[in-house]
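Re: [help] complex structure
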Amino acid sequence: MNFTFTSKDPETAARSGLLRTDHGEIHTPVFMPVGTRASVKSVEPEELKKQDTQIILANTYHLYLRPGNDIIAKAGGIHSFMNWDGPLLTDSGGYQVYSLSELRSISEAGVRFKSHIDGSMLFFTPENVIDTQRIIGSDIMMPLDECPPWPAEKSYVKESGDLTVRWAERAKKHLAATQPHYGHNQTLFGITQGGTYADLRTQISKQLADLDFDGYSIGGLAVGEPAEEMYRILELSHTILPENKPRYLMGVGTPENILNAIERGVDMFDCVIPTREARNGRVYTRNGHINLRSARFADDFTAIDEGFDNHVCRNYTKAYIRHLLNVGEILGLKLCTLHNISFFMWLTRTAREQIIRGGFREWKDDFLKTFNAGQQP
Amino acid sequence: MNFTFTSKDPETAARSGLLRTDHGEIHTPVFMPVGTRASVKSVEPEELKKQDTQIILANTYHLYLRPGNDIIAKAGGIHSFMNWDGPLLTDSGGYQVYSLSELRSISEAGVRFKSHIDGSMLFFTPENVIDTQRIIGSDIMMPLDECPPWPAEKSYVKESGDLTVRWAERAKKHLAATQPHYGHNQTLFGITQGGTYADLRTQISKQLADLDFDGYSIGGLAVGEPAEEMYRILELSHTILPENKPRYLMGVGTPENILNAIERGVDMFDCVIPTREARNGRVYTRNGHINLRSARFADDFTAIDEGFDNHVCRNYTKAYIRHLLNVGEILGLKLCTLHNISFFMWLTRTAREQIIRGGFREWKDDFLKTFNAGQQP
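Output below.
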């Protein structure tokens, strides 16, 4: 993998870049739809491509549980398994161990936890999480980390962050000691932690930068802290993380979060918002989000976002999708999902275009003004 | 609408034909996927077209309840509402009144029933069911009928059949007294009843034939009677119904039922089997149906039906779809549905080709031999 800048915004830390993987190029800033269990909810891979999706995310923890490494290996990796031939990133599963498993114990060796599916006891180590991602065959891998909640005691965040750094070092060593299984190159990012403690975040980011990863994930944010705290940490991270490596803000976020993070030098995003909210009928427009379950759309025969040029807006009305949601037709969820993915793709693509033409900040301010003014509950 | 034969099978009553509607031509025999509430479960209209779907079915009863005539009228009819620009057929809602509504009372005037959605009391008449279908804008409409259960006392079947004939006459008169709302022509079929009583079926079929409908639906079958009884009634119907009008066997059925009915002169079919069974993981192959939920497909990386040239078989393996079903991903249901629709389209399309080349019976026997031999529970 390599990463090159195509341009930098003159007014902010925003940048546009080009990330090359063996499964194709990724133009950044980029939003990655979440395909946790080797499926972006209800949408086929070819439909994702038609919405300009460049890279998707899948989840090591979930895939490890089901279908399991054996099936993925026999399939020849996840690209072949799910019929997605574009770039794919896997998170390490660390976050899911902490958020989904009730029983877990962390040691220097790794994390022991109970499967939320069948209750069996499992053990993730920095090494075996790399092995699993070798089997999955993701283009971009994440090392095992520990993600503290927010707020958390500083002493705990420090101890946990130090462990994450040691695990990152082990992951990197194990990466070097192993080979890809399917002929395409796999790269590893480092994940910074440290919560919202500036000194800890600085220390950990520097230690990881010294380890020279191919890219940097900014972890432990978007876990409940105020947005301003997150932005402060991003500004700090920008000054520490190597400029010539891609930066991925994990689990973010709303359109506003994403644009504010782009402004602070972030290149990559993933979030369940477009897919999860779609399943509740919430769809995004340039004038804010609306909930299509609302009766006020029952006879609204306009597109979700009039003039927005995507498949769903070209072909379906609010009234029709509202009807589908109202009677419980699966197609309603699918159309909302497809629209939202398309909207988030448009958002980061437009941000990129504006960075290149030098108008990012003005466009961002205009967009957010309109977007926030139209926000519906 | 007009209907012309393109050929007749020399050995059987099977025929191929061409039905012209203002929304396009339909080559028969044809299977119509069911889009009860203006959506063929989980599948977009353009995807239906790519599976060679020529005509779909929607349900007057369900659409009348939700979204209701007002919304459909404001949408400019169902084609515009759901973005399907091909031919569309609506049933009258009679069958649903009898099968879904607990409280109903039938009189000469019509049927009073309780909505299964909100419990409100509603009244369907031969006239207002035509009005609703005028609003829906279906290309082919059905008159209100009464569909007796099987078995039923002969006296009841006779009384009910006589009422259905009188209602059909009223429907036809009302059709003539009303106009299409959206500029395209709408045609009305007659529905024969009479259960499996040969004399009653004969009488009612003759009375409807005398009324000169544009086509004939064969109703009151596939309601629990043995298949042989159904085939006997189809053979009888073939001798009575006008040869130059299309014949539609309502609610049928399995591949075997469909081919045996084609052999007995039926041109059109609809059934929830391909869509409903897909949602339980059952998919159709030329070697019988299989259930993809089964663990034995967990590492089967072949297509649902190897060498079957459709979108799902070209792009996905049994193991992947089994994984999707196993973890509850909506995409699994969608892929099974799309495959089954494609399979039923292939079945009737191939039957047609074989009728045209004069090899229908031989092909049918070969197909069923292979299909039934491979059947899985």
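The first helix of chain B runs from residue 45 to 50.
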